[in-house]
Amino acid sequence: MAIHRYHHPMDGLMIHAGACDFCDHQGWLGFYLCGDQETIVLLCDECDTVYSSPLDKNRGNPTRLSDAPEYRVEALNVSIAGGRDATRAEVAAKGWGAYVEGEYAYHVKGRGRP
Ligand SMILES: [Zn+2]
Hints:
Elements: E1 13-19, E2 28-33, E3 40-44, E4 50-51, H1 54-59, E5 72-73, E6 78-79, E7 84-85, H2 88-93, E8 102-105
Antiparallel strand pairs: 1-2, 1-8, 2-3, 2-7, 3-4, 5-6
Bound molecules: zinc ion.
């Protein structure tokens, strides 16, 4: 994948809205907090497909990311650079708790853990 994702330092979890259709379900559509520390999008951790919202995901309507280093979400004109995986609480605060399908734990086998 092209983008280095920053994972939440507290829990090492990616909260996701299910598997990604664009890469034959190889990746998860993770809720990702953008660089403005406010906007949350759905970002595939495998193919970098991005949706502006879970509604757009359900409509099969992805938006585009601009090239490095900006990585702007074109439909929202906000950059994911400087962002990180959103927490479950942040997703719930956005009103998208019902779209959470699961979570994926990074740092398996102790990697990245102190
Ligand atoms: Zn994908």
